[in-house]
Amino acid sequence: MKLQKILSKFQKLHSREIDLSLDRIRVLMTKLENPQDKIKCIQVCGTNGKGSTISFLRSILKEANYKCNIFTSPDVISINERFVYNDEMISDDDLADLLNKVHEVNNGRALTYFEALTSAFFLGCMKHKDNICLAEFGLFGRGDAVNILKKNLANCISSISYDHLDWLPENDRTIERIIYEKTSALLNSNIIVAKQSSKKITECIKKNILNNSAKKIFHGEDYNFVLKENDFFFYEDQYGSLKIPKPNIKGDFQLENASTAIATLRTLKDLNIQDQHIIEGVKKAHNPARLEEIKKGKLKDLVKDNMLICDGSHNPGGAKVLNDYLNNLKCDVHCIIGMMANKDHEEFISHFKNIKSVTTIDIPNTPGALDGKKLKEKFNSIPNVQYNTSIEEAIKSIPLSKNDIIIITGSLYLASEVLKLN
Fold this sequence. Notes:
By secondary structure, the chain is α/β, with parallel strands linked by helices. The protein folds into two domains: 2-284, Mur-like, catalytic domain (UDP-N-acetylmuramoyl-L-alanine:D-glutamate ligase), CATH 3.40.1190.10; 292-421, Mur ligase, C-terminal domain (Protein-Tyrosine Phosphatase, Chain A), CATH 3.90.190. It is 36% helix and 17% strand. It is globular and about 60 Å long. A hairpin with a 2-residue loop joins strand 10 (232-237) and strand 11.
């Protein structure tokens, strides 16, 4: 109750959930004695793969006996997931205490909900300031509250694609503008650029960071990876090559995120990351709601021997790599999809090929979600689309044959509801 009470207070301090400006949080952090200036941080930006990249970074660092403080968003099951200190998720009471301190210092001034959470995270780092911090910033990085650091260890740029276009002017919703917003304000330490979906995007990133004096590491030029048979891949950079088992996180596209993490940590030579730390860390990494197979629970019981997968893909770039994964399964796939209203629904569904059936649903308990019936109308270009009222009813309505798979996707908010319900 104490945690929910303080969270409710922060939800009332600003008329908008998101207001892309750093002015408010800079004033607040000054009053909190700028804890963000006293940490060692790796920041991760991009559109897809931020959470997975952080998972690989965390797992490798753990193998090397480093403790991490981690800030990610959104949460999947509970808000506590966003606050990890000393590799442990924060308790309700400790999170409430942090937020109450921020609320007291802020003294009723306008502050967005996300700014409150971000300032609380940085404040909490002061108890563990010798740890390495891993923090993602999303939307458009220039105005993201996480982007208030004056120095960091490195910047990772994960795959960039179209998303959150409603936050851009209608006449400037281009990939070039998205790249500018995400990369133009990066700090000048080290910049590691992941594999991108096109040469155009990579070249645009290069143009945007051209005048940044950071050391720049590009996939395909400074490091690379090659998938091999027998469940392993080869990674190579200027420091040598590694044979690494494929990660437990499903999807060959995760090799992009794993390789970005490896390139980052091998660039930071002072950390003394060894080959065995990388091999074991990649193998053990875990990221919830990213192609997560549900192996037991209430929803799993509904499909019996069939596979049930939960995935938070929610934009065209995510849909494309998800479809590539599904096509490699060589079985019939049924999709249950719920999405937020501000997404590009038609472009999202256009990337799914050879899907046996699609069922649209409402996302429960989620303001801003698109009505499932309206989503079905937007998917009218593909065959075998139906609507159902709930997650359970959608699963029950699908006539499953042996080896068929159900995947529930379209939103991290839907993934959250799925995992809670299960």
